[in-house]
Amino acid sequence: MKVLVTGTEGYLGSLLPPLLIERGHEVIGVDTGYYKTGWLYNGTNITAKTLNKDIRHIELEDLQGVDAIVHMAELSNDPTGQLAPNITYDINHKGSLRLANLAKKAGVRRFVYMSSCSVYGVATEGDVTEESPVNPQTAYAECKTLVERDVKPLADDNFSPTFMRNATAFGASPRMRFDIVLNNLAGLAWTTKQIKMTSDGTPWRPLVHALDICKAIVCTLEAPRDIVHNQIFNVGDTSNNYRVKEIAEIVAEVFPGCELSFGTQGADNRSYRVSFEKINTLLPGFKCDWDAQRGAKQLYDIFSRIDMTPEVFNSPGFTRLKQLEYLIRTQQIDKDFFWTKTTVGV
Ligand SMILES: NC(=O)c1ccc[n+]([C@@H]2O[C@H](COP(=O)([O-])OP(=O)(O)OC[C@H]3O[C@@H](n4cnc5c(N)ncnc54)[C@H](O)[C@@H]3O)[C@@H](O)[C@H]2O)c1
User: Fold this and answer.
1) What pLDDT score does 286 carry?
2) DSSP classification of residue 89
3) Any atom of ligand 1 within 6 Å of the Cβ of 212
4) What's the CA gap between 279 and 85, in Å, rounded?
5) Residue 330 CA to chain centroid, in angstroms?
6) DSSP of 240-252, one letter per residue?
7) 146 near 100, Cβ under 8 Å?
8) What share of the chain has pLDDT > 90, as a percent?
């Protein structure tokens, strides 16, 4: 299968192509390169040829002969989405919808969209399922719901979208992100030997390892069409719903000598437990291989191997908001988040 993956220079997007290539698929990448400077360690040497292009500029001819698209290139978390909500809507909602329409026009048969469990928003009773009402709290989460709403009607006999509502990711990637909870706590534990939480850590967070997200994508692309056609899947495992406090405790246990303290209840009221029964029951071959403890150990091993310094941990390339603020401040990207003409490379 010829698969076009958008966001191949991202945290998840850099992990997926080697898996697809190893399974005999042909992969083309697309990425505009906002976080190009961030490279934590050398992983595999299998990479996809990547088209350096904004998804808002993808044309029909870029999609000729493509069997499937895995669409990951967006402004990819809540804080980044809040930086300029109008641009978040431009890229994440309008840009993704435009890409889906072009895909359908080009005869691309599968469209795997990276949605997020953040569409569920604040606390509800019990574990939320794909049938539960969405309750997005930010521009980022709202855009995910809008793409789902607007791409679903495009489904027909020749075009099968699938919506992957991923839990919060964790784990190692050469394109590391330290702005997601477990990775952030692990980085703090390594560089400061302290995790000082300002909140009491009671909110629930479903977690999923980056490689398990990639596994879910591969399973979706290879699944019989009727199983994934126009379906929503929560991506993760029900046993990987943690309270933030538990995540901190797991990390503190794995990183020797790390002190842990908690504060009082915080301002972040996002809290939800998610049921992952559907994906684990229906998607052939899918089962998570990772839990938080194994992921924390993986990070400990990598930080030890590369002797990670605080400068590396804090560098903008690994924290999306910091990097985009830097690109704006230095006028490398313009008000619409396109690279400026004077950019000489980053
Ligand atoms: N990491 C998570 O915890 C998580 C959880 C749920 C969903 N997701 C979703 O999965 C997808 C991938 O996430 P990630 O963590 O790898 O994100 P990321 O920010 O690490 O990577 C996204 C990549 O897309 C590129 N990109 C952004 N806007 C672009 C544009 N307009 N044109 C071309 N390229 C562009 C960036 O340069 C970056 O390399 C996103 O859609 C994200 O919302 C991620």
Assistant:
1) 98
2) I
3) no
4) 31
5) 26
6) GEEEHHHHHHHHH
7) no
8) 90
Q: In the chain, which residues have pLDDT < 70?
A: 123-124, 266-270, 342-346
Q: C-alpha distances in angstroms, 11 versus 16, 46, 209, 318?
A: 10, 16, 11, 9
Determine contact, residues 69/108, Cβ cutoff 8 Å.
yes
Q: What 8-state DSSP symbol labels residue 92?
A: I
Q: Where are the domains of the chain?
A: 2-329
| Per-residue DSSP letter, 133 | P
Whole-number Å distance, alpha carbon 219 to ligand 1 midpoint, is 20
The residue written with tokens 């961030």 in the block is: 38
**Dist. CA 305 → ligand 1 center (Å):** 26
Identify the architecture of domain 2-329 in CATH: 3-Layer(aba) Sandwich (3.40)
Structure tokens at 317: 């390339």
Which residues are CB-contacts of 112 (< 8 A; sequence separation ≥ 6)? Answer: 68, 69, 70, 71, 161, 162, 164, 217, 220, 221
| 123 phi-psi bin (left φ>0, alpha ψ -120 to 50, beta other) | beta
Q: Whose CA is nearest to atom 2 of ligand 1?
A: 169
pTM higher than the cut 0.85: yes
- The angle subtended at Cα 98 by Cα 154 and Cα 74, nearest 5°, is 110
Predicted local distance difference test score (pLDDT) of residue 343: 56
> If you measure from the C-alpha of residue 317 to the centroid of ligand 1, how many angstroms do you get, rounded to a whole number?
13
Phi-psi region of 345 (alpha: psi -120 to 50; beta: other; left: phi over 0): left
* Residue 321 Cα to chain centre, angstroms: 14
CA nearest to 250, candidates 198, 207, 294: 294
CA of 29 to the centre of ligand 1 (A): 13
- Predicted pLDDT of residue 346: 47
74 CB under 6 A from ligand 1? yes
Q: Give the SS3 label for residue 247.
A: helix
